[in-house]
Amino acid sequence: MQGFYTILLLIVSNIFMTCAWYGHLKMKQQFSWFEHLPLIGVILFSWFLAFFEYCFQVPANRMGFRENGGPFNLIQLKVIQEVITLVVFVAFSTVAFKGESFKWNHALACLFLVAAVYLVFKK
């Protein structure tokens, strides 16, 4: 069950991370007040979102880490996180940035990451 909670927390963390890293690009297009923010304002906005990312990521890693009683070693945690990041990003970019397209080479890259997860868990 700890593994499930770890992955769930990593998903929530990555939603905040993706919004912090890329959300400001969409907000600039949609809100005139955001477009006029100076760069430091955009950075502070992103840091605000990143705070919540860390509120979920740190407990996820602590809970999921084998030496803390979790089911995953450090490499497994990192690879899981990277795959979640890619999945969340693809969903985000598809919904928020309709002009961006998901191409065959992107799908192949995703398959390689899934293969990486498989290999990391292989004994």
Outline the structure in words.
- By secondary structure, the chain is mainly alpha-helical.
- The chain has one domain.
- Helix content is 81%, strand content 0%.
- The protein is built from 5 helices and no strands.
- The radius of gyration is 17 Å and the shape is flat.
- The mean pLDDT is 90.
- InterPro entries: DUF486.
- Keywords: Membrane, Transmembrane, Transmembrane helix.
- It holds the Pfam family DMT_6.
Quick rundown:
The chain is an all-alpha fold and 123 residues long.
What's the topology here?
Elements lengths: L1 H29 L1 H4 L3 H26 L9 H23 L7 H18 L2
Helix pairs in contact: 1-3, 1-4, 4-5
Structural class: mainly alpha
Strand content: under 5%
Mean pLDDT: 90
User: How would you describe the shape?
Assistant: flat
- Helices and strands, in order, run as HHHHH
Estimate the helix proportion, in percent: over 70%
Can you count the helices? 5
Most strands sheet: none
Q: Quick one: how many beta strands?
A: 0
Distance between the termini: 21 Å
Stretches with pLDDT under 50, minimum 5 residues: none
Radius of gyration from the alpha-carbon trace, in angstroms: 17 Å
Count of discrete structural domains:
1
Protein name: DMT family protein
InterPro entries: DUF486
Keywords: Membrane, Transmembrane, Transmembrane helix
Organism: Parabacteroides faecis
